Amino acid sequence: MRRFWLIPVLLAALILTSCSNKEYQYFSIATASTGGTYYPIGVGMGNLWTEKLIDQGIRATGQSSAGSVENIDLLQKEEAQLAILQALIGDQAYNGTGIYDSRPYEDLRSMTMLWPNVEHFVLLNSRIKTGTIADIEGRSFSVGPKASGTEQSTLALMEGIGLTTADISPEHLGYDDTISAIRDGRLEGGSLPAGTPVTAITDMYASGVRADVLDVTDEQLEAINRQNNVFFRFEIPKRTYPRKTEDIQTIAQSNFLAVDKKLDEDMVYLLTKTLYENLDTMYEVHKSARAMSLENALEGISVPLHMGAYRYYKEQGLEIPAELIPPEVKDE
Question: Alpha-carbon distance 89 to 109, whole Å?
């Protein structure tokens, strides 16, 4: 008889558990490979939102990916609800230019600027001549994983200084694999754009790999921006990386958090509000997150805001540039 009584009890428990699980709303944040900055910051945001909003049925987590280009695809397929994107890729996707020529993603929306995405062109010391990114010509060089934002920004920089993949021996590796290949002598250099400090590059300097980060001259920056006007001067202070005793003169673009316009307005408002009310937590996740502030929330973004984020920033008294006002506002 006890067995018969146990059956409905167990069934009831299973039903309650199932119902409880269905109450949660899950948010996946598309990032990039684990050796860069996208991944730890995406994971940090997911942990923050889960911790602060789990009582409201919200769980979020960062997922690794090939980077910005794949992240656009994940958003469109609704396989991710949020994504970290390079300004270059976001701008091209929304406007239907570059690799998205005639294929605009008109439903793409922005939530906030996150941090500057700093270009790091690494090359073996024995191959460095001028000390600038022009030195990669003729070298085996990783341009980043295929279909990644790293690949596209690297190709944009190369195009700006008159180089193509025909001028190098291209590889398509993630950040950790790039440094491992340089350390093992299988590769001469690679591109690792990310917020400073980049974990893989910190490891490179700390472990004594005989390689360095190349500079970008003002003339090279000007030439690059004639093709894609989203880059700006960035100086990496000395000692940001172990054993690096000189400043690195490079360039950067903004990284921003993106969503699809179909994501619920109240939900995006809540996520944005929670993020900005807990910036101290984000600052502990990674040094790059310290660039986040309400004053910088819209810096370097060219994709219109999501209505939820727009509402939050209006409440905070931010002046919203015309190009960032959601088209939905104009349609009202």
Answer: 13
Tokens of 1: 């008889």
Rounded Cα distance between 326 and 328, Å, is: 5
Residue 272, judged by CB atoms within 10 A of its CB (0-12, 13-18, 19+), counts as buried
Q: Contact, 36 vs 45, CB < 8 A? A: no
pLDDT per residue as tens digits for the range 28-68? 999 998 888 899 999 999 999 999 999 999 999 999 998 89
DSSP state of 197: S
Residue with the two structure tokens 């990039």: 32
105 CB-contact burial (10 Å; exposed 0-12 / middle 13-18 / buried 19+): buried
Exposed (0-12), middle (13-18) or buried (19+): which is 223, by Cβ within 10 Å? middle
What does the DSSP assignment read for 219-243?
A: HHHHHHHHH-TT-EEEEE-TTSSTT
The pair of three-digit structure tokens given for residue 261, joined into one six-digit string: 């316009």
Phi–psi pair at 213, nearest 5 degrees:
-90, 130
Q: How many CB atoms lie within 10 A of CB 141?
A: 27
CA distance 151 to 218: 22
Among 56, 16, 14, which Cα is nearest to 273's?
Answer: 56
Digit-coded pLDDT (tens) for 164-210: 999 999 999 999 999 999 999 999 999 999 889 999 999 999 999 99
With contact defined as beta carbons under 8 Å apart, do 272 and 309 qualify? Answer: yes
* Residue at 182: amino acid letter: I
The amino acid sitting at 111 is M
